[in-house]
Design brief:
The two termini are 32 Å apart. This protein has helices at 3-10, 37-45, 57-81, 91-106, 108-125, 130-139, 144-154, 157-173, 183-208, 214-233, 245-248. The longest helix is centred in the C-terminal third of the chain and has 26 residues, at 183-208. It is mainly alpha-helical. It is globular, with a radius of gyration of 21 Å. Bound molecules: iron/sulfur cluster (SF4). Iron/sulfur cluster binds at residues 19-20, 23, 25-27, 30, 32-33, 36, 38-39.
């Protein structure tokens, strides 16, 4: 996509600014695709099935072309706003970024969220016969497939968003008197939504697997503790209204 097309899309009033910052990236299930610039660009850019295949060279060519054009656009905008992008690469900035990376990696919340992702992976690895279980569950009217899909979708997403929230929190401490809603609360909010949905999905699985619940109960309890810790660290997160989603759900 060339720069002019990107600019034109960027100026289209149909799109809700920043809607994709606090969503769960599950576009297949999103009710707001028509209001999302990110979705629109993906649809245009990756309309050819080969460009959607991560193993195909066309995918990587397309991705690098999009990055290149976006970067050029960013450079143009930075120039208009009088921002020197080159100065952002200074030694102090790089050191600062590295220090923040380390602080985020070592933060208790981030380590707990990572542990959750790993526990989920182990749990599923130990249940190679789950495929047969889902078929049996479907016959009994239990939608195990749906519950598994939800858990798998959010398995790594939770950690990514918790890390972004922690990082945002560190950066916001350095900026006093910022009147904008905080990015850390928005990231924590979508992490909490993902945790809520995952706990709901685990409850479905637990209901079905009555004979092997020990490991599962540990995972649910761990996730619930993580939820409480995120709420405590980001007390305003639950009331953060996500762009776009707040219009279709008051708790959005
Ligand atoms: S807002 Fe919806 S359509 Fe846009 S990236 Fe997020 S999930 Fe996908």
């Amino acid at each position: 996509m060339n720069r002019e097309r990107l600019k034109k899309l960027g100026a289209d009033k149909r799109f809700i600014p920043g809607i994709y910052n606090y969503c769960d990236r599950w576009c297949e299930r999103c009710p707001l695709t028509s209001r999302c610039l990110n979705f629109s660009i993906s649809e245009e850019e990756f309309s050819d099935p080969e460009t959607r295949d991560i193993k195909n060279e066309k995918f990587w060519n397309k991705l690098s072309e999009t990055f290149r054009e976006t970067l050029e656009l960013l450079r143009e905008s930075a120039k208009e706003w009088g921002v020197e992008l080159e100065t952002l690469d200074s030694k102090e900035n790089i050191e600062d970024i590295k220090a923040k990376d380390a602080a985020v990696e070592n933060h208790l919340l981030c380590r707990a969220a990572k542990k959750y992702s790993e526990s989920v992976e182990d749990w599923f690895k130990e249940r190679e016969m789950l495929f047969f279980e889902t078929a049996a569950a479907a016959r009994e009217g239990v939608d195990l497939d749906e519950a598994i899909e939800v858990i798998r979708w959010y398995q790594y997403f939770i950690c990514a968003k918790v890390m972004r929230a922690v990082r945002g929190g560190l950066e916001e401490q350095e900026v006093e008197g910022d009147e904008f809603p905080s990015d850390s609360d928005g990231s924590a909010k979508i992490a909490l939504i993902a945790i809520d949905r995952s706990i709901g999905a685990w409850a479905v699985i637990r209901h079905y697997f009555t004979d092997s619940t020990k490991g599962m109960i540990d995972i649910i309890a761990f996730l619930d503790n993580l939820r409480q810790a995120v709420e405590k660290t980001f007390p305003k997160a639950r009331s953060f209204i996500r762009p776009g989603f707040g219009q279709i759900d008051p708790n959005g």
